[in-house]
Amino acid sequence: MILIIGGEIMVYIFVGATIVIYAGIGTYVVKKTIKS
């Protein structure tokens, strides 16, 4: 049970980090495109 919960938490952290990274890249590209 603990392992399953811990695994789920790791998955949520991984997914959240991935979303944040893609959002950051997307924001950077948009700002760079607007400035150009």
TrEMBL record:
- Key words, A-Z: Membrane, Transmembrane, Transmembrane helix
Recorded protein name is Uncharacterized protein
Query: Where do the TM regions start and end?
Result: 12-30
Keyword Transmembrane present in the record's keywords: the answer is: yes
Reading the lineage from the top rank, the first entry is Bacteria
